[in-house]
Amino acid sequence: MSRPLRTALTLIGCCTLAACSNGGGTADDQSRPKVITTAVAAPTKDVDTVTWNVPAGEPPTLDPAQSSIESVSTIAANLCEGLFTLGPDYRPRPALATKVDHPDPLTFVIHLRDGVTFWNGKPVTPEDVVYSVKRILDPKLGSSWIGWAVNLRGIESTGRNTITVKLKKPDALVPNFFAMPAFFVVEKASAEAAGKAFGTARAGVVCTGPYKTQAWSQGQNITLTRNDSWWNTAAKPKVKNLRFTFISDPSAQTAALASGDVDGQFNVPLSATAQLSGKGRLLYGQSMGPTFLSVLNKNGALGDPAVRQALQSLIDYKGILKSVYRGTAQPLRALVPPTAWGYGQDVYRAEYDKLPEPVQDLDKARGLVKGSAKAKGKIVLGYTSAIEENARTATAIADTAKQVGLNIELKPMTAEQFGAVFSSPAARTGIDLLLAGGYLDFPEPLSYYQFFTVGSFYNFGGYANKEYDQAIFAAMAQEDPAARARLVAKAQGIMAKDLVNIPIVTQYVNVYHASRLTGLVPRQSYVNTPWAATLGGA
């Protein structure tokens, strides 16, 4: 889980960094909204090797079952494939499957593509597919993708090239996961032979995607090489070798990109803009993710709704957008941004516009604090110091809180410590409020709002509202898009009133690469789709 009113500007073709992002200009120039790239020139030249940095650091594994971790997903998305994939519009497109039949609300019959082979030349069978899905459902594996199967009755091979998924009750979310790592296919024989070592530098993975692993020098780099036997001959990659490095320090990232030692990176630090100006292409795309405050402790000061309201009112939204995000984000009224409304846009828009615009009101905050008996209690705000924007935002919130009488104590965490918050109750001990960022894997608001129902693994703060839960569970059983949108929008309004989460911004996706390259449009889906297959020489 740990990633507006918009008029998207379209940029056809590539541009220099200076032209796209005003790098090296005045502070006001750098705070202006950035141009959103929705198309670029297709590559025309083959490239022998591209060096790409993964700012989240070296992955612990390349097992797609663990690809909710961005360091894993950025690489594994080019190695392993699902039954479907997401197109540029975030809609499912055939991949290892050609189609899916849905004869009744509880049944999906998936037809597999003929002639697909793993990197080792062995054919992909229905048994490989069923094994791959069931493997993720094993709690011992610890894959977060297990969550899709809450209503699963069973999955089995039902023909030479078909598998059938049966549900216990209707679930509108399930078809989306056919294009997610929950249904990424690995070779059964190699996974069983590797055991717990599967995905590691010692055993690797065996998949079907456009690239295959060539070498993994632990602590240094991972090299992939093109899979020239990839079934998708219409999309043959133009980059032969991909070399991934793991520079996590923002200053070192900037230096490596500026010198040309590294050719590209997703999520370039905003502080790098001026230094990279004119050296390559920095492109921005709409994301489907929020940055928000999440209440973890409902028993402390934040247990009082007045304190949560004061917190919402003290935030300098305009200042954060201008000075922290520098034109690379948009304001947010609800937890799920409008870019993630994949259906029912009119319904979502009408309800979204009813929500109050986030504005700073210090007088209101002071009044709420003065009238609350709990407001004097300490509020511990956790955030990751590995993300510069989060650190600056957290500091700004804590400083302003003093002005209205709230006592916010900052708790900076390393990337590893912050990641543990999402899996370990012990890591959340002593944290009242979390500054988090997340993203939706596909444009379905329900997929994010379901996290805050009673009993959900990700409902860390123990939010409980029967009316909210009823709306969410009814939406999950509703296949009609308009009806589902009305139910989800109702739940959205309830959550917004309860203020268990306080949305701040939705930040753009960015990608930087050398000017000799082209073909890569920045989209949130890079974590689940083979993005490197579109890259090549300009």
* Sheet/helix structural class: alpha+beta
Average pLDDT number: 92
Q: Treating each run of at least 4 consecutive H or I residues as one helix, how many helices?
A: 17
| Rg, alpha carbons | 23 Å
Largest sheet, order of strands side by side?
Answer: 8-9-10-1-11-19-12
Tell me the number of strands. 21
The parts where pLDDT drops under 50 for at least 5 residues are 1-27
CATH topology of the largest domain: Dipeptide-binding Protein, domain 3
Briefly, what CATH class of the largest domain? Alpha Beta
Percent of sequence in beta strands = 15-25%
Keywords: Signal
InterPro entries: Peptide/Ni-bd, SBP_5, SBP_5_dom
Protein name: ABC transporter substrate-binding protein
The gist of it:
This protein has 538 residues and is an alpha+beta fold. Helices cover 27% and strands 21% of the residues.
Chart the SSEs and their pairings.
Elements: H1 17-21, H2 27-30, E1 47-53, H3 70-76, E2 84-86, E3 92-94, E4 97-104, E5 107-112, H4 126-136, E6 152-159, E7 162-167, H5 188-194, E8 211-217, E9 221-226, E10 239-245, H6 250-259, E11 264-266, H7 273-276, E12 280-285, E13 291-295, H8 305-314, H9 317-324, E14 329-331, H10 345-354, H11 362-370, E15 378-384, H12 388-404, E16 407-413, H13 415-421, H14 425-428, E17 433-437, H15 446-449, H16 466-476, H17 481-498, E18 501-507, E19 509-514, E20 517-518, E21 536-537
Parallel strand pairs: 1-10, 1-11, 15-16, 15-17
Antiparallel strand pairs: 2-3, 4-5, 5-7, 6-7, 8-9, 9-10, 11-19, 12-19, 13-17, 13-18, 14-18, 20-21
Helix pairs in contact: 8-11, 10-17, 16-17
